[in-house]
């Protein structure tokens, strides 16, 4: 009984934390069911680096799996010049694609073999962030708790889950007025 209560309390804290990240962008009735921790590696012509990030896994009432990126969890390692060479938009695009890919590999997002009827999933991020620091000390903080970017993807796996076809269908921002302090994360 005590374990069940602790598990319920943990899930409630995850749901509160995910809603604090992007409250206006979750579907009505969507609940947090899991957490992903992932590493995103990338290379430039002269360097390589990686990004560690936490994503909450949401499930809508219709059964669709969504991913909510915890912006404050983003951490960098590796060659600082590679990190500095990537724009904020490029970093959030890489994180979103890697999150969907890991969700597929862990069986959280169904990936049909036929691309004529793909699965649809969403990745929700802060829509407006302040980027500070440089190199491995680069850090992002949301500019507004209600601003978000929702990327909608179709996914299918005609060659197996090891090589999914992930296609950005659309992106929608709840608003960001870029200035010297804040910048948009939405394509």
Secondary structure topology:
Elements: H1 2-21, E1 31-43, E2 48-59, E3 65-69, E4 75-78, H2 80-84, H3 88-105, E5 119-126, E6 128-132, E7 139-142, E8 148-156, E9 165-173, E10 183-184
Parallel strand pairs: 3-5
Antiparallel strand pairs: 1-2, 2-3, 2-4, 5-8, 6-7, 6-10, 8-9
Plain-language structure description:
The chain contains three helices and ten strands, in the order αββββααββββββ. It has 187 residues and is α+β, with helices and mostly antiparallel strands. It has a domain at 2-31 and 55-71 and 97-132 and 140-184. The relative contact order is 0.16. The protein is globular, with a radius of gyration of 17 Å. Residues 1-23 have low confidence and may be disordered.
Instruction: Name the structural class.
Output: alpha+beta
Query: Mean pLDDT across all residues, rounded?
Result: 86
Which segments are poorly predicted (pLDDT under 50) over 5 or more consecutive residues? 1-23
* Most strands sheet: 7 strands, mixed
Helix and strand element order: HEEEEHHEEEEEE
Q: What percent strand? A: 35-45%
N-C termini distance: 47 Å
Number of strands: 10
> How large, in whole angstroms, is the Cα Rg?
17 Å
| Percentage of residues in helical conformation | 10-25%
Count of runs of 4 or more consecutive helical residues: 3
Shape: globular
